Amino acid sequence: MNLRVEVVALDCLMVRLFDEISEANMPWMLAASESLRAAFAGHLIDLVPSYTTLMVHYDLTALSPAQARELIAEALIDLSPNACTRGKCHVLPVWYDLSVGPELSLLSQRSGLAVDEVIRRHSWREYQVFALGFAPGFAFMGLVEEALAAPRLNTPRKKVAAGSVGIAERQTAAYPVVSPGGWNLIGRTPAKLFDRERDGYSLMQPGDTVRFEAVSHAEFINLGGDDTPLEAQA
């Protein structure tokens, strides 16, 4: 861990704990998040975790920048991951099919693996939720194995269906709402990833884990999935 505090704005400080993305970072990020929330208490406006950083937005009318830095330093003294602090584990059903996941064939060609093996390898393990961003409820997860890694599309799509599951480099994600996007699409989930009526809005939070579960077309439809082919939604 290489702790640094950087200025983001008059009332925001960035606490940088690591320099590289790693699944091993998350226990430390969760411990730091808990400690900072407790230290700032009612003076904390927002705390935004990411892969290697935590952005602390505090009440400037209650704390000076110097006082905020002091609270951060005190909160992170002798920081230690808590083995009992774990996020939720989510199982997301996914219908893997070329009509909703056109890059399945591309990933198959790039990796030299059969399409069924690409699906098996994507769905066999749990992924860490690193951060939320890009769109409400969009969870950046990883890391996919190297064989499945693929760069973003050279030309992003203007419209990606809600629930679309994709891969970009060694990250994977599911689009919570209809939006533009340049990830390699491999399937679609019927799960409701963003809900204004849900506490916290997003189904997933940093520190949670996710496992994708391959389901049949019939199961996907029974779960409320939209099987409209991607081309028909463009």
- Count up the helices: 6
Q: Which homologous superfamily in CATH is the superfamily of the largest domain?
A: Cyclophilin-like
Strand content: 25-35%
CATH topology of the largest domain: Cyclophilin
Q: Quick one: how many beta strands?
A: 13
Mean pLDDT: 92
What is the CATH architecture assignment of the largest domain?
Answer: Beta Barrel
Biggest sheet strand order reads: 5-13-6-7-10-9-12
Percent range for helical residues?
10-25%
What is the class of the largest domain in the CATH system? Mainly Beta
- Largest beta sheet, briefly? 7 strands, mixed
Give the structure's gist in a few sentences.
The protein has helices at 26-40, 65-75, 104-111, 115-123, 217-222, 230-233; strands at residues 4-9, 12-16, 44-49, 53-58, 89-94, 126-132, 139-142, 157-160, 164-168, 171-174, 179-181, 184-188, 209-214. By secondary structure, the chain is α+β, with helices and mostly antiparallel strands. It folds into 2 domains: 4-75, Gyrase A, domain 2, CATH 3.30.1360; 89-233, Cyclophilin.
List the topology elements.
Layout (H helix, E strand, L loop, with lengths): L3 E6 L2 E5 L9 H15 L3 E6 L3 E6 L6 H11 L13 E6 L9 H8 L3 H9 L2 E7 L6 E4 L14 E4 L3 E5 L2 E4 L4 E3 L2 E5 L20 E6 L2 H6 L7 H4 L1
Parallel strand pairs: 5-13
Antiparallel strand pairs: 1-2, 2-4, 3-4, 6-7, 6-13, 7-10, 8-11, 9-10, 9-12
GO molecular function: ATP binding; hydrolase activity
Protein name: Allophanate hydrolase subunit 1
Organism: Pseudomonas mandelii
